[in-house]
Amino acid sequence: xxxxxxxxxxxxxxxxxxxxxxxxxxxxxxxxxxxxxxxxxxxxxxxxxxxxxxxxxxxxxxxxxxxxxxxxxxxxxxxxxxxxxxxxxxxxxxxxxxxxxxxxxxxxxxxxxxxxxxxxxxxxxxxxx
Length: 129
Description:
With 129 residues, the chain is an alpha+beta fold.
């Protein structure tokens, strides 16, 4: 019988001896979670641009496990169908003023800004919303 290092408390193999299978691979689970987050974000942004705080609030209030602001930022910046369209100023009591990014779908931007070339962020003016 092969010797397996056992956790003395529970009698289970230590983590380093566990075999990764398609059912328990962390990457696969995280990948599916970000797919659901991406779909939810795109549906939320379909009607108009939203800032990062609004998107985070929407995701966390409509999904069971929600997301972190760091993961949301990664999804927003990496997704080819989502474009940064501007910044809004926020003021905090302790932190002073800071900028928050506004995001929109490529479809929304191309419909509302036909002069946009499809590359890079677009900074909107407030009159065209």
